[in-house]
Every structure is written in structure tokens, then in C-alpha cells.
Design a protein that fits this description.
The protein is of the alpha/beta class and about 350 residues long. The protein has one domain (about 10-354): TIM Barrel (Alpha-Beta Barrel). It is about 45% helix and about 15% strand. The protein has 15 helices and 10 strands. It has helices at about 10-25, 45-50, 60-65, 65-75, 90, 100-110, 130-135, 135-155, 180-185, 185-200, 215-230, 255-265, 285-305, 320-325, 345-354; strands spanning about 55-60, 80, 115-125, 160-165, 205-210, 240, 245, 270-280, 305-310, 330. Strands 1-2-3-4-5-6-8-9 form an 8-stranded parallel barrel, surrounded by 6 helices. Helix 11 (about 215-230) links the parallel strand 5 and strand 6. Its EC number is 3.2.1.8. Belongs to the glycosyl hydrolase 10 (cellulase F) family. Keywords: Carbohydrate metabolism, Glycosidase, Hydrolase, Polysaccharide degradation, Signal, Xylan degradation. It comes from Actinophytocola xanthii.
Length: about 350
């Protein structure tokens, strides 16, 4: 999913809503207690005990500049995803000229804090430099191979899994008419997976998309593609279900059933970019509904043995991509802008702790 520039706060309305509803909505302390009780343990302690990965997208700006961000990140999560630092425009802005400064920063932080890393993303129609988009078919295929060889090869043995291709379907379930598809047809998908497997034989390789939470035309197209390509020997190991949800549109109640059908293909399933937005301002009822959505997602994942990871797309509303993308919406993440844990956080915690 596309990232965003850093925001320095939502609206004053959210701050007021949080101030007046903190007791009613059960906002919990963002710092762990020291009594050793189950309730006081961070998310990652409970997840690790279950052999489960609970993760977040990470932005390099606050990772560098904000202690509260680092403290929460490293206390709560046992896996991380680079929000933008591993995308093509960041790693190879000019042909053959690579920049790994942001990616290396995230890798170093993760290693220092005992976190695994999920790589995001190698081939996407957004945040790809113009020089790639203007290549002819043969040159484009060569560019994909060289890019994947270099990026995946650099982190071979250190990145556990990759989103190899991202958002290859349109909203109706057809193949997205991207510059990749216009030049190469569907073949670029299989090629990308094969290049990634060659660059790191041990990394799990995923296909990732949005609006595939429930059983619908798009998720069925994804299911059929994964089934067909795996039948041809293409090394697809996992399916990423992004999980960008909104409380005003209803919950996909067949999420678990959908994950189970993917798992039956022999692939792992990951919730890769979870957030649950709402119309602003937030209030206690909306936050309670949001918490239910978070609980429903993690419960569905934990009920499917091959669903082994849930990642939220950032953890504090302070740096969420939602307000700049969905006008009038926000408050999508488990922590407020001031790092107070919301009921959504408690939903994740309680599910992992049970």
C-alpha cells in the first residue's frame, strides 16, 4: 500500500474526543507494568509465546527522531515492515544506482531489538520510478531481475519474507492494467517470484493485495492465480491480505473462510497492513466498533493455523496514512497521536493473551 508523508497530529476534535472518553472506552496505559501479570505484558510477549508474529509498518523519520515511537515499536512488536524504505523509488531511484540508507536503518533497528523483518515491496505499480515505466518489454524484464537480485540479495538470510508483487488486480478482479501488464502481460508475476527465489532461497515469497479480506471477485481472482501459478511451479509461499478496513462499510464476516481456502492451497496467510478507519471525530461508540473489528481480524487469523502474522500499518495515529488519503477519516490505529493505547490495542492484547 502507498505510504504518506509524516503528519504532526490529527485534528483537535480527536484530541477532545479522546480526552472526554478515555474512561468510557478503556484507554490503557501504553507502558508495561512490572507485576508480571498477563495483562501487563506487551503484545510481542504473548505473540512470541504462541509462535506468532505481531508487527507494524515502520517509518524512518520517527524511527530516527522520536524516542516515544522507538519505545513503543520495540516494546510491542516482534516483526516489522518498512513502510516505504524498501520500495523501488527508495532503493533504486535511478537505474543501477541503489540507495539502502532507509532500509539499512530499519534492518539495524530490527536486529538490535530482536525483530524479524517482512520486506515490502519489490514489484508494484506505484512508487516505481519513471525510468522503469518507460522501458520496453525486454529492458523492463531485465530491470525487474536486476532490481530483485540486488535488493533481495543484499538482505538474503536476514529478511524472513517478501511482498514480491503488490496489488496486481483491479477492483473488479481483472488484472490491473499497469505498465508492468501492458509491457509484459501476466508473465511478470511469475518472473518476479522466480527471481526472488533465486536471490534468497530461504525467504517466504508473498503476493499482497487490498480488498481481498472477504470472498469476492477480487479475492477469488487472487485465489485462482495463486492456484494456477503454484501448479506451474512458481514459488508462491504466502498470501498477504492487507486489511485496510473502515467501520462504516461493515466487517467481512467470511474473512476466516477466505483465509482457510488460501491455506488449503498450501500457502501461509498474513494480515499485512491492518488499520480500521472511521469518520472523524472519533467517539466512544466508534472506538468500540473499531476494537471489535481488530478483535475479529486477529481471532480469524489465530483460528487458521497457516495464518502466522498480523501487521498493523503503523501503530500511532500520529503517522497514519489514512487522513491524507481518505478525507474526513482517521483514528485508524491502536494508539492515539500521544501514544495512549486505545480499545483496539486491548483487543489485540486480549486475543493474544488468551
Amino acid at each position: 500500500m502507498r505510504g504518506k508523508s509524516l503528519r504532526h497530529g490529527l485534528t483537535a476534535l480527536l484530541t477532545a474526543a479522546m480526552a472526554t472518553t478515555s474512561v468510557a472506552t478503556g484507554l490503557v496505559q501504553a507502558t508495561a507494568d512490572t507485576d508480571g501479570s498477563s495483562r501487563s505484558q506487551p503484545l510481542r510477549a504473548h505473540a512470541t509465546a504462541r509462535n506468532f508474529l505481531i508487527g507494524t509498518a515502520v517509518a524512518t523519520g520517527p524511527l530516527s527522531n522520536e524516542q516515544a515511537y522507538r519505545d513503543t515499536l520495540n516494546r510491542e512488536f516482534n516483526t516489522v515492515t518498512a513502510e516505504n524504505a524498501m520500495k523501488w523509488d527508495a532503493t533504486e531511484p535511478n537505474q543501477g544506482q541503489f540507495n539502502f540508507s532507509g532500509a539499512d536503518q530499519i534492518m539495524a533497528s530490527a536486529q538490535a531489538n530482536g525483530q524479524t523483518v517482512h520486506g515490502h515491496t519489490l514489484v508494484w505499480h506505484n512508487q516505481t520510478p519513471g525510468w522503469v515505466q518507460n522501458l520496453d518489454a525486454n529492458a523492463m524484464r531485465t530491470a525487474i531481475r536486476n532490481h530483485i537480485n540486488t535488493v533481495v540479495g543484499r538482505y538474503a538470510g536476514r529478511i524472513a519474507s517478501w511482498d514480491v508483487v503488490n496489488e496486481v488486480f483491479d477492483d473488479n478482479g481483472g488484472m490491473r492494467n499497469s505498465f508492468w501488464y501492458q509491457r509484459l502481460g501476466e508473465s511478470y508475476i511469475a518472473d518476479a517470484f522466480r527471481y526472488a527465489r533465486a536471490a534468497d532461497p530461504n525467504a517466504k515469497l508473498c503476493i499482497n493485495d487490498y480488498n481481498v479480506e472477504g470472498i469476492n471477485n477480487k479475492s477469488t481472482a487472487m485465489y485462482n492465480l495463486v492456484s494456477r501459478l503454484r501448479g506451474q511451479g512458481v514459488p508462491i509461499d504466502c498470501v498477504g491480505i492487507q486489511g485496510h478496513l473502515s467501520i462504516q462499510y461493515g466487517f467481512p464476516n467470511d474473512l476466516r473462510q477466505n483465509m482457510e481456502r488460501f491455506a488449503a492451497l498450501g500457502v501461509d496467510v498474513k494480515i499485512t497492513e491492518l488499520d480500521v478507519r472511521m469518520r472523524m471525530p472519533a467517539d466512544s461508540n466508534k472506538l468500540a466498533t473499531q476494537a471489535t473489528y481488530y478483535r475479529n481480524v486477529i481471532d480469524a487469523c489465530l483460528a487458521v493455523p497457516r495464518c502466522n502474522q498480523l501487521t498493523v500499518w503503523g501503530f500511532t495515529d500520529k503517522y497514519s496514512w489514512v487522513p491524507d488519503t481518505f478525507q474526513g477519516e482517521g483514528a485508524a490505529l491502536p494508539y492515539t497521536e500521544n501514544y495512549a493505547a486505545k480499545p483496539a490495542y486491548q483487543s489485540l492484547h486480549d486475543a493474544l493473551a488468551r
